[in-house]
Structure formats: C-alpha cells, structure tokens
Amino acid sequence: MPQSFADLTPPIALTPLDGRYRDQVAPLVDHLSEAALNRSRLIVETEWVIHLLDNEAIPGLRTLTEDERALLRAIPEDFGAEGIAEHKEIERETVHDVKAVEYYIKRRLQGTSLEPLAEIVHIYCTSEDVNNLAYALMIKGAVRDVWLPAFEGVVAQIADLARETADVPMLSRTHGQPATPTTLGKELAVFAHRLQRQARRIPANQTLGKINGATGTYAAHAISVPDTDWEQISRSFVEHLDLTWNPLTTQIESHDWQAELYADMARAGRILHNVATDVWTYISLGYFRQRLSAQGGTGSSTMPHKVNPIRFENAEANLEISGALLDVLSQTLVTSRMQRDLTDSTTQRNVAPAIGHSLLAIQNIAKGLAGLDVDAEAMAADLEGNWEVLGEAVQSVMRTLGVQGHEGLDNPYERLKELTRGHRVTGEDMRAFIGDLGLPDAERDRLLALTPASYVGCAPRLVGHLDD
C-alpha cells in the first residue's frame, strides 16, 4: 500500500491554489482565508462593544478609557498563529465558530478592567450579525487591496500596448476570414475600453451590512433597552465599518450586493478571456513574437523550437473556473428559505477560490503581455497578400458616385463580388479594375493610391478615446 499523503506534516494541499499556485495568490490569504474570517469576526465583535459603550446604548454603563479601547482593538490585531490554534481548540468544544470567537474575546478580558463588562461581547447579536459584516469587510478588502490593483494593472498594460500600436496596420478577420483592415492598437483599445468600464463599475458596488438581531426586527434589543434608538445604533455601527447599512433584512443580510459584485467580476473575466484567446490567435498568426526569457522555462518537452503561449492558455482555463464559481455564488446567495437557511454559509467559503482563480489568470495575462514583441512586418505581409479586402472601399465609392448621378457605375457590389469572392486578388488586379471603371479623376486617384495597409479609416485616431 502506498503511503497516505493525508497523514503528512505539513499538510499536503488539496487544491492548486494552495499548492502549485500558492505564491501567486498568497495575498488573498489575509482577506479570504478561514483565519481571515475569524479575524474579521473579532473586529466586528470588539468594535460592537466599543460602539455600544461609546454611544451609551445601554444606560448605566460607563464609557471606555483609551487604554480599554486599545486593549479591545489589539485582540484582532494580535490574532496570529497562536490565536488561530486557540480558536480552533475552543471551536472543538463549542462546535460553533462564532461562539468560539465570543469565548476567545472573553478570555482576553479576564483579569483586566473590562472583565466585569465581558457579557457585552456578542450582546443582542445573532451569528449572522457578525458573519455578514465580517464577510463584507473581507470581500471589500480582497477586491480593493488585491484583486482590483492587479486587474487595473493588466488593463493599463493593454491600453499602453494599444497606444504604442495605434498606427500599426493589421488585417481584420471577421468570421475568421480576411476583412477590412484595422490597426493592432485599435483592436487592443476595444478590449481596454471594455475593461476600463468594468474597472469603474466594480469599486462602485455598494458593500452592505446589517446588525439587527435574529430575524431583523431588533427584538432582543428593544425588549432589553426599549428607549434606545436601535436603528440609529445599527446604522451608525455599519457605517463606522465603512459599509452601507441595509435597513431591511431577515436573519441574514440578503447578499444581493455580493451577487452584483460577482456578476461584474465574472463579466470582467470573460472580457479578459476574449483578450487571451485573441492574443493567442495573433501569436499563432505571427503578429506577436514571444520572448522565451519572459515566458520562462521550456517551451516544449520534445520540440525545442517552440515557445508555447502558455500564459494565455493558463489564463483561459482559470477564468473559466473563476467565472463558473462567481456565477454559482451570484445565483445561490440571493436565495434563502424563509427567514434563514444555512446554504450561504458554505457557499461564501468559496469566495476565495472564485477570486483566487481570477487573480491567477490576471497575473498570467500580465506576464504573457510583458513577453510579447509586435511583428509589424508579418502583419504587413498578411495585408499585402489580401488585396481583395479593398473591394469594400471600391464598391462604396462606386455607390456614392452612383447616387450622386454618375453613370456607368451600376451594380457595384455585384461587380466587386465577381472580381474578389473566392479569388486571390493582387495589387495589379485591383488597380486594373479601378482604372477601367471610368471614375472621376479625384476618386480614381484616391483609390489607386489605396493599399490594404493604408485602408484603416480612423482606426489610429480612435485609440485616443482611451483617454476620454
């Protein structure tokens, strides 16, 4: 029997994010791990104690000293390896992770001036009061501090490359077939513009929170201290955490804001997926060359001439995984039976892999783009081999002249179709056709001067819209 890896120390990672790709996604551990969840719970619980006493929500209790506030805030700040182990030990006894957080805090108040006030910890709270705020802090921090800077960085890379190549002509391929030329920069600018919109949408999403009791009615609060304005206490506390107060909930905060955020992140990922597939295709066409030093390592195990576009392929796969997880989160979290069921509890624990696979993909695209060189000569050769794409230009001029009353220019589309469809047209063929049309001198000369490489319309100028 082979040795069981499950018994090895340190533990063997089950998922690639915690194994093979650990270094790339490690910054998310501070935000989206189980330990980060418990640290966020500690923040919520200790800040709730401070908020209640500072706002005199419970008559007859003294206010805190600055040292006592510092003592409470040090509890989450000092939560490290020993604290994680201690919380786990307490949870084995409570079989309840939030209750274990409450007991963890109370242990730290023993022997201090706050010990007589220990029962304020978790007072008037259901577990979901703590959890929804903890997850809000975690997810907001992960997106703001880790995911969004990486995303904005790769968008900036694409935009910079678009500006650099705004004037580099390139053959378009609509339906995979040669089509009206464009510039490489304009095509990259389309992606950058789409991604810039998502980069603005994502941080604009509200992050909602609530702290209103077992079924969202402040029942325990009102029966205990009926003269306190508990809605105001709740609202000011949520806003103190830099979150948006949700005034109407069941036992759980409804998670709609999470669904909105994940939908935007999934959409951003799908646009990036399109970037990865298009750049991969441009590499295969020779429009981009890959620098081996930038891509790293062996290109192929058996074919030494190859530099494989592995960064973009890796990104494709991870964006597909991330998108699927984000979709599931969006669909599942908005539904809760009656006033509460527990489906959201295990679902939210998968926010980490959803964002982790997205972050990994973003990093791979960034590394892949950094290792590319533009081959303008390859693009020029492709254009030179496809003079038939000027058929659109010629028939458009013929149509314009025809409606203006010029004779002899009937059926322009059909005539160009006969010349170009299914045929390889050379420059000489196209110029001869233009010369025989009987066009006015200005239009004839303009078309005779046209080449596939110069037939790019306003494409170079359009890139400037990235700076609007």
Kindly provide the name of the CATH class of the largest domain: Mainly Alpha
Q: Based on Cα principal axes, name the global outline.
A: elongated
Major sheet details: 2 strands, antiparallel
Structurally, the number of domains stands at 3
| Average predicted confidence as pLDDT | 92
The H-level CATH homologous superfamily of the largest domain, spelled out, is Fumarase/aspartase (Central domain)
Q: Which regions are unreliable across 5 or more consecutive residues at pLDDT < 50?
A: none
Number of helices: 21
Which sequence of strands runs across the widest sheet?
1-2
The fraction of residues assigned to DSSP E strands is under 5%
* Second CATH tier, the architecture of the largest domain: Up-down Bundle
GO molecular function: lyase activity
Protein name: Adenylosuccinate lyase
Keywords: Lyase, Purine biosynthesis
Domain Adenylosuccinate lyase PurB C-terminal: 336-456
Task: Describe the protein in words.
Keywords: Lyase, Purine biosynthesis. This is Adenylosuccinate lyase. Residues 19-315 form the Fumarate lyase N-terminal domain. One of its GO terms (molecular function) is lyase activity. This protein has 468 residues and is mostly helical. Helices cover 60% and strands 5% of the residues. The chain contains 21 helices and 6 strands. The protein has helices at 22-25, 29-32, 34-54, 66-77, 81-94, 97-109, 127-164, 184-204, 219-224, 230-240, 256-285, 292-295, 310-333, 343-348, 351-370, 376-384, 391-403, 412-420, 427-435, 441-448, 459-462, and strands at residues 169-174, 177-183, 208-209, 244-245, 288-290, 372-374. Strands 1-2 form a two-stranded antiparallel ribbon. A two-stranded parallel sheet has the order 3-4. A hairpin with a 2-residue loop joins strand 1 (169-174) and strand 2. Helix 7 (127-164) packs antiparallel against helix 8. The protein is elongated.
